[in-house]
Amino acid sequence: MTDQKEVLLRVEDLCQYFGPTKAVDHVSFDIKKGEVFGLVGESGCGKTTTGRSIIKIYNITSGNIYFKGQRICAGTRSYREAIRAARKELKGCSDEKRKEELNKIIADNKAEIQKAKYDHKYSDREYSERLIRETHEKFKEMQAHTGSPEEAARIAKEYKDAIRVAKKTKLITKIQMIYQDPIASLDPRMTVREIISEGLAIRGIKDKEYIDNKVFEMLEMVGLVREHAGRYPHEFSGGQRQRIGIARAIIMEPELLIADEPISALDVSIQAQVINLLNELRERLGLTILFIAHDLSVVKYFSDRIGVMYYGNMVELAETEELFAHPMHPYTRSLLSAIPLPDPRSEKKRVRIIYNPIAEHDYSTDKPTLREILPGHFVRCNDAEEAKYKKEFGI
After folding, report:
1. Tens digits of per-residue pLDDT, 56-65?
2. Phi, then psi, of 146 in degrees rounded to 5
3. What is the pLDDT of residue 2?
């Protein structure tokens, strides 16, 4: 990829297994700061599981997830499998040089397991400790230039509050999620004020006036009014509930927002309002968004790049215009052919492409991997399919 923007999130070889079910299988992608990355595919393909794995709702099976250059999730299964394979080979091995190599493989993978466990468990603590150091340095400089005793007392109070917040701040809170169901994701026994401000309370902020003002600001930012703060979720429509969910996410000042099909449960007219709201917030707050959806027409309007998933695998990844202009993988072509057209005459001529993976691919010997066919355009294919795509596009 030629774009030199800072990579905010990097997913490497992510696997999320539930028993024998491979919900996400060796998925890799990155999201650059300030962009909207669309993740599309049919229901059950692993889109939501990917989002939930990133935000640590699930402990990942294997692979790595990096946020702001720091590893926040790490799985150990791949390392354990490498150790088992090396021990099995070691039993029947008589070559001393090979034995030495196998013992090194075992030792290296054991070390990787310890590193993975440490990063997964302590990434938030390390981030908090860094914040405490930065806060201390900032206020140390301010205290050196204080004038009156009143100003010194004010700075001392601000320092105490800032340190308390820094101690309770986690790196993962810089990633927030908007859930698919706006009804189930809101506690019916909490008022809107309590729902939106809950994250601030967890962070250790106790100033009631500050919290109220922040809640009112968020409500107005998402198109609601401050009078709504005292109401309960059942008093709102679906679109309004989703706005409350958005306000709850952005009050934490996230850098990455995971929008998990935020409009699929809403009426079409309300869908447009929520999408426009997310677009406005993206510009206003400088958000980076992982937008999970199955409606390709919405994703086309909203996303800078798109990743297409099928049965837990990333099958194609490209910039939005490139993907729609030159779809390569047969599943992507099938998805694009299913987009309804607003013109009745064109709709009558539209030909649906049916994707049959058994007929389309022969992976019995030549296994597929995600390969860059055009600059920034990746497709899951084997050697024969790669040659076919390159011939088709004259590469």
Report:
1. 999 999 999 9
2. -75, 150
3. 39
Q: Residue 240 has which token pair? A: 């309004």
Q: Which of 303, 334, 355 is the last residue of a domain?
A: 303
- Give CA separation, 375 vs 3, 114, 323, 326, 371, in Å: 10, 37, 12, 12, 10
Q: What is the DSSP annotation of 42-93?
A: STTSSHHHHHHHHTTSS--SEEEEEETTEEEEE--HHHHHHHHHHHHHHHT-
Q: Which residue has the higher pLDDT, 274 or 269?
A: 274
Do 193 and 298 lie in one domain? The reply is yes
Distance of alpha carbon 143 from the chain centroid: 40
d(CA 309, CA 42): 8
Domain identity same for 277 and 354: no
- Which residue type is seen at 282? R
**Claim to verify: residue 384 and residue 271 sit in the same structural domain:** no
Mean pLDDT score across all residues of the chain: 91
Show the DSSP H helices in 92-148 as ranges.
Answer: 96-144
> What would the mean pLDDT of 158-169 be, rounded to a whole number?
86
Are 347 and 385 in the same domain? yes
Torsion of the alpha carbons at 326, 331, 333 and 336, rounded to the nearest 10: -110
Share of the chain above pLDDT 90, in %: 68
Q: Which residues pair with 318 in a beta bridge?
A: 306
The pLDDT assigned to 3 comes to: 52
Contact, 324 vs 301, CB < 8 A? Answer: no
Identify the H or E element spanning 238: helix 238-250
Average of per-residue pLDDT across 162-184: 89
Q: Which of 270, 303, 336 is the last residue of a domain?
A: 303
Q: Is residue 160 part of a domain?
A: no
| φ and ψ at residue 8, rounded to 5 degrees | -85, -45
Q: Say if residue 210 is in the same domain as residue 297.
A: yes
**pTM of this structure:** 0.89
For the stretch 177-194, pLDDT in tens is 999 888 888 999 999 999
Number of folded domains in the chain? 2
Residue 130 included in any domain: no
Share of the chain above pLDDT 70, in %: 99
Are 166 and 128 a contacting pair, CB within 8 Å? yes
Q: What is the residue range of 57's domain?
A: 38-66+170-303
Task: Give the model's pLDDT for residue 4.
Answer: 63
What CATH number has the domain bearing residue 49? Answer: 3.40.50.300
- Among 126, 134, 129, smallest CA distance to 159 is for 134
